[in-house]
Write a structure and sequence with these properties.
two-stranded antiparallel ribbon, 35% helix, 6-stranded mixed β-sheet, single chain, alpha+beta
């Protein structure tokens, strides 16, 4: 009888300990479900796993990690970097969902639908969690922007914001890391996350969900740096990396003004600027759509003065957002026969449409080349023909006597 009561007491103790632990759930659309970790992971190793998943491992050293920690990082760290780099059009969108004071029902439902999960032993208090999240966002902002030619990262971030902003506002860092933070006061319904997160993972998002138990169980614990130590970028380095490094390679001459005279003719890719009437050349790669009309006008300098921002795609339901973009209009100079029409294109209407002059030049060149080759061929064929016999008979010599 003592053995039975001892077994029951041990089971209740393990269940209570699990309820006081933090939990980390991952959602990867390309991976199958993995078994949860056999034992809880300490906060320092959990921080290394989170940094690996969010693409911030360069700031976190593993020189003091043991073999078990390395194994957990490889198991739950998400996509491993390729030896020769990844393709430029690969989505690098990351979503970090941090839920404080999560109840057990939410943890259970997330465990059922997640790709993998593990427990975090001795979860730190909310103040340390807040500092870790802020450090993650600072590290993400200091990294150079990745190329996104097919806008896969941008589209995945838009999907994440559209799906979660109905619950609470999200923040986007360096155009790839979306952070969603909530606690018990936000009254987040577990079934919403249960059905929303797997769908976002299928759209190219790597999702990491961290749930923390109520802080009353660990409020008395005072541990200095429970997540361990890691490097932080300097303010100068972060500011330099956020700027476009190619802007320092050349000096931009004084821009010529268009007929509308408010904005310069932009022949380079634009970059986000804070002034609508900036005299500098806008550089960088613009996203194909914007979330608001004001953002479109500010980022594209009101379509470079060659058009206007309009609503391009209307949201069909609450999970989507309206998308705005530039509608370019031609520039007409003069009247009558002297009228000159210039068409514009590009995400900010900064590109001159030279398709008509180009095809006119190519067509004229091909036609002239065809005529010249035809004339030369005809002259060669005429010169190679034999003379008629009548001409040959009239020039024969006198007959011999």
């Amino acid at each position: 009888m003592k053995l039975s009561w001892g077994f029951v007491a041990s089971s209740l103790y393990c269940a209570a300990a699990a309820a006081k632990n933090g939990h980390v759930f991952t959602f990867d659309g390309t991976k199958s479900h993995a078994a949860p970790a056999s034992s809880p992971i300490d906060p320092e190793t959990a921080r290394l796993i989170l940094a690996q998943r969010l693409g911030l491992s360069r700031f976190h050293s593993i020189k003091d990690a043991d073999a078990e920690a390395i194994k957990n990082i490889n198991t739950y760290g998400g996509r491993q970097p390729q030896l020769f780099g990844e393709e430029a059009d690969t989505s690098r969108a990351q979503l970090l969902v941090w839920l404080e004071d999560a109840d057990e029902s939410l943890v259970t439902e997330l465990r059922d639908v997640s790709t993998s999960s593990f427990e975090m032993s001795s979860p730190p208090p909310p103040a340390d969690n807040e500092r870790l999240i802020e450090d993650f966002t600072t590290q993400a902002e200091s990294l150079p922007k990745h190329a996104d030619p097919k806008a896969k990262t941008y589209s995945a971030s838009i999907d994440a914001d559209a799906a979660l902003s109905v619950l609470k506002k999200t923040t986007l860092h360096n155009e790839c890391l979306t952070v969603f933070r909530a606690d018990k006061n936000d009254n987040i319904k577990s079934n919403i996350l249960q059905y929303t997160l797997p769908g976002l993972a299928q759209r190219g998002l790597d999702i990491t969900v961290v749930t923390m138990p109520p802080s009353s169980g660990n409020s008395k614990r005072r541990v200095v740096s429970p997540y361990g130590t890691y490097a932080m970028p300097s303010a100068i380095e972060a500011r330099r990396n956020r700027q476009n490094p190619e802007a320092l390679l050349s000096f931009t001459p004084e821009p010529s003004t268009s007929p509308k005279a408010e904005y310069p003719d932009l022949e380079d890719f634009p970059v986000h600027t804070s002034s609508k009437k900036s005299n500098g050349t806008v550089r960088g790669i613009l996203p194909p759509f914007f979330n608001s009309l004001a953002s479109c006008e500010k980022t594209t300098l009101n379509c470079s003065g060659h058009g206007e921002c309009k609503l391009l795609h209307k949201a069909q339901d609450k999970t989507q957002q309206d998308r705005y973009g530039c509608a370019c209009s031609p520039t007409i100079v003069g009247k009558g026969n002297s009228r000159k029409v210039t068409n514009w294109g590009g995400p900010a209407c900064q590109k001159k449409d030279i398709s008509t002059p180009f095809w006119l030049f190519v067509g004229t060149g091909v036609t002239l080349a065809f005529l010249v080759s035809t004339i030369i061929g005809m002259m060669y064929s005429v010169g190679s023909e034999e003379l008629p016999s009548v001409i040959g008979a009239g020039v024969s010599g006198p007959a011999r006597k």
